[in-house]
Amino acid sequence: MGHIRLGRLPRTRKWDQVVSLLVAGRPAEEIAAASAAAAEAALRGAHSDAALGHAFWLITQIPFAARSSDFTVSLERLGMQAGPNPTLMAVVGSLTEAVDRHVARGGIRTDLGEMAQLAAAESLAAVAGQGLPSLFGPTPDDVKLAIGRLAAPNRFAALAREFFARLTTRYLDYFLSCEISNHVGPGRGLNSIDDHTAFNAALDQYCREASRIVEAFAGGWFSKTHFEGGITPEKARNFAYVSFKKIQNELRRRGAADA
What pLDDT is attached to residue 6? Predict the structure, then answer.
């Protein structure tokens, strides 16, 4: 997937406010909060987004597949072709391909869905990768064990937070990237490329802090839903939509507090 960019910001009062904050060189926290409010209308289709829902559902199921007696077969039942004795990268790659196939069967490809697909792949690689040995190359058993640990409620909560932090950062950058370059340079809101880099880092950190609200309840939802009939694609899609909305509200709340 390429780096997604809009041609220009939508011309609305809320986006005009975002531009004003950029011109004034306001902190990333305020700009993130204003962007979350301005982009709210674009979120309305998130609940029915085929790629977003399927990507999140897969990361709820892959840990259980890793705990089964035959990891490869369990992945195949999820529509994933990772091959025998899969590496972590093979699992991540098969997740991406499975989402592509799901959308091709009748969904609509959207920018938000592409962002979610990438966030799911990156999050699984990052969180599962933390449990792999670094001194020597991980064996297939190491990979299976590391991914299987994510079925523990606290570990899934960390995975969910990582997913939504990455998705939220990309979502806001999707809208901001076409405008922010107009405010970099001497005498502008961001005086230099270093300031631009620092702004991007601050935006990412702010989204990660806001995503803590998801981590607080994701583990309980994961455990309860699994044992009460299982996590269906519909349940996963509902959880993803509600979580994304909660993070938006948290960004706006934090922005108002920091203003």
Answer: 40
Residue pLDDT, tens place only, 206-241: 888 888 999 989 999 999 999 999 999 999 999 998
Q: Report the distance separating Cα 216 and Cα 43, nearest Å.
A: 22
pTM: 0.84
Percent of the chain with pLDDT over 90: 50
- Residue 103 in this model has a pLDDT that exceeds 70: yes
The 3 state secondary structure assigned to the chain is CCCCCCCCCCCCHHHHHHHHHHHHCCCHHHHHHHHHHHCHHHHHHHHHCHHHHHHHHHHHHHHHHHCCCCHHHHHHHCCCCCCCCCCHHHHHHHHHHHHHHHHHCCCCCCHHHHHHHHHHHHHHHHHHHCCCCCCCCCCHHHHHHHHHHHHCHHHHHHHHHHHHHHHHHHHHHHHHHHHHHHHECCCCCECCHHHHHHHHHHHHHHHHHHCHHHHHHHHHHHHHHHHCCCCCHHHHHHHHHHHHHHHHHHHHHHHHHHC
CA distance 245 to 66: 30
* 112: nearest Cα among 175, 205, 58, 28: 175
Angle between helices 88-104 and 111-129 (to 10 degrees): 160
Q: What is the predicted pLDDT for the residue at 29?
A: 74
